[in-house]
Amino acid sequence: MPTAYFNPPECRRHDMGDGHPECPERLAAIDDWLIGSGLSQALDYREARPAELRDVELAHTHGYVAEIGELLRGCAETGGRCAVDPDTSANAHTWSAALHAAGAAVQATDLVIDGGADNAFCAVRPPGHHATRDQSMGFCFFNNVAIAARHALDRRGLKRVAIVDFDVHHGNGTEDIIAGDDRVLMVSLFQHPLYPYSGAVPKGTNMVNVPLPPYTRGAEVREIVEAMWLPALERFKPQMIFVSAGFDAHRDDDLGQLGLVEADYEWITLKVKDVAARHAKGRIVSVLEGGYHLHALSRSVAVHLRALADL
Ligand SMILES: [Zn+2]
Question: What residues are annotated to the active site?
Answer without folding.
Answer: 130
